[in-house]
Design goal:
It is a single chain. By secondary structure, this protein is an alpha/beta fold. It has one domain (2-201): P-loop containing nucleotide triphosphate hydrolases (Rossmann fold, 3-Layer(aba) Sandwich), CATH 3.40.50. Helix content is 56%, strand content 12%. The chain has helices at residues 13-24, 39-44, 46-70, 81-94, 100-114, 130-140, 150-165, 186-201, and strands at residues 2-7, 27-29, 75-78, 122-127, 171-176. The chain has a five-stranded parallel β-sheet, with helices on both faces. The longest helix is centred in the first third of the chain and has 25 residues, at 46-70. It starts with a strand and ends with a helix.
Length: 204
């Protein structure tokens, strides 16, 4: 089974994936953040490095999905391949940070890749307001994220909501992270686990 956690920067995807992997004994697949050779450069000069960054993420997540589908185990994935193409790349294009030529090239590559893979069995979307996201970003203290602009985060949130409102590829669970803290409050993690249990049992 393939479970995926989606959400904006700072929503708590990696933390939740870790906690759920530990609880259920699932195999976690994380986003290539620490190993990404473009992230630091991207936040310093988005226009120069946006295409390189998006192609890196696309390639990384496509390889993950192929491994997920070959595995006989249940895997939880931190962020999906769809978020890159539905949210991040179009946002960069709209902001004038990704040229139309590069965006079209990217989309062609994405369309080819998703024609070869299946969507997740369950998508868990972490919905968070801008203050919550900013608080989480500041708390984890990644140096390259210090320069993330508020308008950039807001636009991403708008695109996430639009994508989720039309999501029809499989089961969807929405968790509002403004109201809970599954990192420090066990009862909040139990609340999320109960919701996931209800969804999973409906998959069989």
């Amino acid at each position: 089974m393939h479970i995926a956690v989606a959400g904006n920067i700072g929503a708590g995807k990696t933390t939740l994936a870790e906690l759920l992997a530990k609880h259920y004994g699932w195999i976690p697949y994380y986003e290539d953040v620490d190993e990404n050779p473009y992230l630091n450069d991207f936040y310093n000069d988005m226009q120069r490095w946006s295409f390189n960054l998006q192609v890196f993420f696309l390639n990384s997540r496509f390889k993950q999905i192929l491994r997920i589908r070959e595995s006989a185990k249940t895997i939880i994935q931190d962020r999906t391949i769809y978020e890159d193409a539905e949210i991040f790349a179009p946002n960069l294009h709209a902001m004038g940070l990704l040229s139309t030529r590069d965006f079209n090239n990217y989309k062609t590559l994405f369309d080819l890749m998703i024609s070869l893979v299946e969507p997740p069995d369950l998508l868990v979307y972490l919905r968070g307001s801008i203050p919550t996201l900013v608080n989480q970003i500041q708390k984890r203290g990644r140096e390259y994220e210090n320069s993330i602009r508020l308008d950039y985060l807001k636009e991403l949130n708008t695109r996430y909501e639009k994508w989720i409102s039309g999501y029809k590829m499989g089961k969807l669970l929405i968790i509002n992270v403004d109201d809970i803290d599954f990192t420090t409050r066990p009862e909040d993690l139990s609340f999320v686990i109960d919701k996931i249990d209800a969804q999973i049992h409906g998959l069989f």
